[in-house]
Amino acid sequence: MAAGRRVPPHSDGGAVLLRGRFSPGPSPGSAAWSVALTERELQVLRPGGSDVALRLADCVGTAAFPCGPAAACFSLVGYPFRKARWGSPARQRLQRTFRVSQHPEAEENLRIAQAWSQRIRELSLPAAPTRDGVSYGVLPRPCRALVLLNPQSGAGHALEDFQAVVQPMLADADITPTLFVTERPRHAQEKVRDEDLAQWDVLVVMSGDGLLHEVLNGLMERPDWEEALRTPLCILPAGSGNALAASINYYAGNDHVAKKRLLTNCTFILCKGLHAPMDLVSLSTASGKRFFSFLGFGWGFIADVDIDSEKYRRLGNARFTLGTLQCLARLRTYQGRLSYLPAEQGTPRDPKAAPHGAAETPGGRGALPADTLLPPLGQPVPPHWVAVPEEEFVCVYAIYQSHLGTNLLMAPAARPQDGCMQLFYVGAGISRVALLKIFVAMGRGTHLELRCPHLHCVPVRAFRLEPRGSAGVMTVDGEALRCEAVQGQIHGRLCRVLGSV
Question: Hey, CA dihedral for 303, 472, 385, 448, is it positive or negative?
């Protein structure tokens, strides 16, 4: 098994496409090595040594250049998984350079080097398949990236980590970043709302999940929101929870990692450039607000932990452990009504039918996606919806990605374009010990195996929550909301996100 991944690599490199003998490194004098290029790897036979196979799936960039009066070189840069002293294997930079000098003329040697470099580049770019109805795409090379970075996110090291980890990897991959550092709340939202997106091939968000929430809703405020959402989005983790980044890493088949290893994995995914559709959820509140969400909506215990632990932000992900223990000590319950439309009943209506709740952007600049599954909040839910009999809860959470946080695998079966939400709710009466066991098991994604009678999970296409009173806090993508009646529905494949097949 390839180190750091849960999926095996190809054991057969395939037919040889190019073959040659080149010296290692740019300097003359070394004995020539036999080098062969296949569809999946660069194979090197060293005299008196063992064979080495460099997987093209790990390669992010290649180049050809003159070296010396008559020679030329081609090089490739990859980030394969290597064993670490402790923990899971980590991606580490590996560069290999080969000297071409078999011809007396420099132009011919450079032509050979360029041919190898070009073929390696072509084979290193991932294929853009259509799988299970999902159409993938690949970022162009060279690539122009707008990087929106919050320097205050998480423990406050985002700018430092960008310069030390992300920037060198992007340079290897021929991705040119333009950095936009946010200075206040909604700064990124205003930036993407007014930006000429034609100058960017990808929008990169380096922060926690909250900044991506801003970016998505800024894009939805544009009169050309449909075109804007075709610009792929990438998340690079720099916050405390980093739920979407952990989910993207999980979808890629990588081992669970955190901190700089997670950042390296997500930057590598950006360097490879494969992007696919992602679902969004439209949330509407009783006060007339409407949001678009990519991660989840919460009320009760999880929302309390998220917001109450804000004061420990500098602790990074450890803030949630401390917040969980504090909220367990003063465990609260909340009263309200919860209803939902099961996923198997969520077939969209005939598009010609009158929608329940078509909404428009401010100033009438264009119709946003209509919530065709939702009646207005003042009206009862349709009779084919399910009304939860319990009306006292410890927690309600609708999640549409696999991870709730870096260390919380809440919905292992979730995928970014599966067309449904996983609605979790915990009824009153659960003990503190049982609740703690659920969150400990959630680190491995085995919490549902506990068969706790108070924990429920159901795939849904839409839901409605009507709190009794205004006590407590709600969150959307980790951002606080006023506690009031709210409902939401899934909108399939509305934007695009960088990820893996």
Answer: positive
pLDDT under 50: residue ranges of the chain: 1-11, 347-365
CB environment 407-436: b (16+ within 10 A), e (fewer): bbbbbeebbbbbbbbbbbbbbeebeeeebe
Q: Rounded to whole angstroms, what are the CA distances from 142 to 97, 145, 176, 184, 201?
A: 21, 10, 7, 31, 9
Which residues are catalytically annotated? 209
Residue 269, Cα to own-chain centre: how many angstroms?
A: 9
Prediction pTM value: 0.92
- Total residue length of the chain: 501
Closest CA to 58 of 123, 129, 130: 123
Q: What is the pLDDT of residues 384-404, one digit of tens each?
A: 999 999 999 999 999 999 999
pLDDT at 84: 83
Structure tokens at 247: 């989910």
Phi, psi angle pair for 226, to nearest 5°: -65, -45
What count of Cα atoms within 13 Å lies in the side-chain half-sphere of residue 120?
32
- Looking at residue 319, its pLDDT comes to 77
